[in-house]
């Protein structure tokens, strides 16, 4: 993302996005990384004795917390792949929470879900008009959307929830009346069997059982829908002509225009979809997480979603892993507190040691040395303490966000025309 607005660069021959280094890792490499991560977490669980690290409840909570972050990140991916920076995701999520709570308590949660998406689309269109049609700086417009959404929802909440039937049903100026629950789904038979395996606490086997159990137990229908949206977005953006044209608008809109692509149309479509996805993330918070609209309910998840998107290198798979990581760290501190978060210090030591070894192998002596020193400091912290102080536990998701971005910053490649002003016909 760029913090300043510049003109779109002159046309250049577009480079194929099929290179292995830029398009992502092979399936075999991904499976090896996943297997290595499972072995590492299982070893940390056994050494530290923190069985909650891979428990069914931990994974289920992590998935629930990861969904709104992932939807915000997916919203940012759609927008930025078309060349429009969207830091207004937080505001669009706020609009989604209000729309879902407002309509949900008056009718039913399904209509509330649709209204939350619609409110998010409305916020996305405001951002699109400002940035695409009028050429407003993308950062300025995104900040304006955040402020506008916050002020608007606070004002409307005072009007609709402070008195009358809403107040009688439990509403007040900062929250809506309770909304009926959306259905949850279990996989019959499988959940109980996996729980039995998990309770044996066998190395790796119980860890896998706990993780799988969390993925098939007490799933909200919105969670399943969100997973389908991730798969559908990957297919649509990377496997269809529509996706190729949309991504070309974010790489070189002048070259795309010369090939007959209506750049304005694709940018508008992408930002509208972005707003809808962010609104769905907000609706998830209102209808699934808390069953009511609450002021300041998003808690910065729009910005964490952007961090997950950057961690994922503007790709769906990496974004999903980033959202899962942030959701996992958030669930860990909410469910288990300092004792279990303390076990993460050991995991951090191993990761820092591995990074130090890699940097030293690459002759990056300063970076390798710093990683070793930080890793040694964290190891000492782990050995001399039994749990992490409560003040630090609450900051765990944000610390993880900073660490992940700092470790992944060297391999990032955003769309080339991301955040740049485009005007039709400027390449002629």
Protein architecture, described:
A two-stranded antiparallel ribbon has the order 1-2. It has 428 residues and is an all-alpha fold. It is built from 19 helices and two strands. It has helices at residues 20-23, 27-48, 56-81, 89-106, 109-133, 138-160, 164-168, 190-198, 205-216, 221-239, 241-251, 253-258, 263-289, 301-311, 316-335, 338-361, 365-384, 390-393, 396-408, and strands at 184-185, 219-220. Helix 4 runs antiparallel to helix 5. Mean pLDDT is 85; it is low at 1-6 and 10-23.
What would the keywords be for this entry?
about 425 residues, mainly alpha, two-stranded antiparallel ribbon, 19 helices, about 70% helix, disordered N terminus
Give a quick rundown of the structure.
With 428 residues, the protein is mainly α. Helices cover 70% and strands 1% of the residues.
Radius of gyration: 23 Å
Strand content: under 5%
Rounded to the nearest angstrom, the distance between the terminal CA atoms is: 27 Å
Oligomeric state of the chains in view:
single chain
The largest beta-sheet arranges its strands as: 1-2
**Coarse shape:** globular
Please outline the helices and strands.
Blueprint: H1 20-23, H2 27-48, H3 56-81, H4 89-106, H5 109-133, H6 138-160, H7 164-168, E1 184-185, H8 190-198, H9 205-216, E2 219-220, H10 221-239, H11 241-251, H12 253-258, H13 263-289, H14 301-311, H15 316-335, H16 338-361, H17 365-384, H18 390-393, H19 396-408
Antiparallel strand pairs: 1-2
Helix pairs in contact: 2-16, 3-9, 3-10, 3-13, 3-14, 3-15, 4-5, 4-6, 4-13, 4-14, 5-6, 5-13, 8-9, 10-11, 14-15, 14-19, 15-19, 16-17
């Amino acid at each position: 993302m760029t913090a300043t607005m510049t003109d779109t660069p002159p046309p250049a021959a577009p480079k194929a996005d099929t290179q292995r280094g830029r398009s992502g890792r092979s399936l075999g490499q991904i499976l090896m990384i996943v297997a290595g991560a499972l072995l590492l977490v299982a070893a940390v669980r056994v050494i530290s004795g923190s069985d909650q690290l891979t428990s069914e409840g931990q994974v289920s909570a992590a998935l629930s917390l990861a969904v709104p972050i992932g939807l915000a990140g997916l919203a940012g991916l759609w927008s930025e792949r078309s060349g429009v920076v969207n830091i207004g995701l937080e505001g669009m999520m706020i609009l989604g929470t209000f729309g879902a709570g407002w309509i949900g308590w008056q009718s039913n949660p399904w209509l509330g879900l649709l209204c939350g998406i619609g409110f998010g689309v409305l916020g996305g269109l405001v951002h699109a008009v400002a940035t695409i049609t009028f050429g407003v700086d993308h950062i300025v417009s995104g900040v304006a959307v955040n402020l506008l959404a916050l002020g608007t929802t606070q004002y409307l909440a005072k009007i609709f929830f402070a008195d009358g039937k809403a107040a009688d049903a439990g509403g007040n100026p900062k929250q809506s009346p309770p909304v009926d629950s959306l259905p949850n789904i279990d996989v019959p038979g499988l959940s109980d069997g996996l729980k039995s395996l998990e309770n044996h606490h066998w190395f790796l086997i119980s860890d896998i059982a706990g993780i799988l159990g969390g993925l098939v137990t007490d799933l909200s229908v919105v969670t399943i829908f969100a997973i389908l949206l991730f798969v559908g977005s990957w297919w649509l953006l990377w496997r269809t002509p529509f996706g190729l044209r949309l991504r070309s608008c974010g790489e070189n809109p002048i070259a795309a225009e010369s090939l007959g692509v209506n750049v304005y149309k694709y940018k508008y479509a992408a930002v509208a979809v972005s707003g809808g996805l962010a609104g769905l993330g907000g609706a998830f918070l209102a209808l699934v997480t808390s069953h009511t609209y609450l002021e300041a309910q998003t808690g910065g998840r729009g910005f964490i979603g952007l961090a997950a998107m950057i961690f994922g290198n503007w790709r769906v798979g990496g974004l999903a892993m980033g959202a899962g990581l942030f959701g996992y760290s958030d669930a860990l501190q909410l469910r288990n507190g300092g004792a279990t978060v303390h076990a993460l210090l050991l995991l951090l030591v191993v990761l820092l040691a591995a990074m130090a070894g890699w940097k030293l192998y690459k002759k990056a002596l300063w970076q390798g040395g710093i990683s070793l020193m930080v890793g040694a400091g964290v190891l000492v912290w782990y050995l001399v303490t039994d749990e992490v102080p409560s003040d630090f536990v609450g900051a765990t998701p944000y610390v993880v966000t900073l660490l992940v971005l700092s470790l992944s910053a060297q391999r990032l490649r955003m769309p080339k025309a991301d955040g740049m002003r485009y005007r039709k016909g400027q390449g002629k």
